[in-house]
Design brief:
This protein has 1 helix and 12 strands, in the order αββββββββββββ. The chain is mainly β. It has one domain: monomeric porin ompg (Porin). It is globular and about 55 Å long.
């Protein structure tokens, strides 16, 4: 019943008359090459639920995004990011209690579209994002590819990200660096111009001191819906396989770095 009202809304609007939108997303984790035209604006709301580690763990990541078209090929966005976490204070050791924490940050995104997924052999865009917060700074770069084949949309991202996390140890500032690579693939089928059903896959890897520490594959279903005034996407990504850093007895999953399942809901409306 958790997503009952969203699913109901999906079917209510799926067969309404078609209308073209500028920057509707069909995936929650995989980016597409489309951009807002010059002067167009959107508000985008993100909610990512993350749960299921080798100990008690719940996390909710939220983003409020203001997007705007700079030119017909270049768009930018400003984000306010908030993350809330509840976990066992001793992780997987006995005797812990529930502890909560939160973090807040801001981000700036730029996306430049070079090729169109319909008019050209494939779509291609460059993406960059900067994030700054009290306890973490990030630089992220993406190569975005997609292709429209009749009622099928295929999108692929190659991602590189550098993170700096800040803490305090014995009164001194401790800086932890991570280098992250990610490959995202999304395939969806348009049942109508307003409603699509597909699948997303995500392979995420973490390097520390130039050594691969964690790497896992996630994959799951994705549905998208749009109207004249808004669009929404829901994706559920369970962890499928750990390639490095597995913590379960069967060496299948990494439940120290990652969760068993991540669920993301995007909702956007046009200004």
């Amino acid at each position: 019943m958790k997503y009952f009202f969203f699913v109901l809304l999906t079917f209510l609007v799926a067969f309404l008359p078609d209308t073209a939108q500028s920057n509707e997303r069909k995936f929650s984790f995989t980016y597409e090459t489309s951009v807002l035209p010059k002067g167009a604006r959107e508000i985008e709301l993100w909610n990512t639920d993350r749960r299921g580690r080798s100990y008690f763990y719940r996390r909710l990541d939220q983003r409020i995004e203001y997007e705007f078209g700079v030119t017909d090929h270049l768009m930018s966005a400003l984000y306010l990011n908030y993350s809330w976490r509840a976990k066992d204070s001793n992780d997987d050791a006995a005797g812990g209690t529930k502890s909560t924490s939160y973090s807040i940050s801001i981000s700036n995104e730029w996306k430049y579209k070079l090729m169109d997924r319909v008019a050209d052999p494939f779509g291609f865009a460059l993406y960059g994002e900067l994030t700054a917060g009290p306890d973490k700074n990030e630089i992220e770069a993406k190569l975005l590819f997609d292709k429209q084949l009749n009622n099928i949309l295929i999108a692929f991202n190659a991602v590189a990200e550098q993170e700096w996390s800040y803490g305090v140890v014995n009164g001194s500032t401790d800086i932890e660096e991570e280098f992250i690579t990610e490959f995202d693939l999304g395939i969806t089928y348009y049942i109508t111009n307003r409603f699509s059903v597909g699948i997303e896959a995500r392979q995420h890897s973490v390097y520390m001191s130039n050594e691969l520490k964690h790497s896992s594959l996630f994959a799951g279903p994705s549905i998208a819906v749009s109207t004249e005034s808004f669009w929404a996407v829901l994706t559920v990504l369970p962890q499928i396989k750990s390639f490095k850093g597995a913590t379960t007895q069967n060496q299948l999953l990494d439940l120290g770095e990652y969760e068993k399942v991540q669920t993301r809901l995007l909702f956007s409306f046009h200004l």
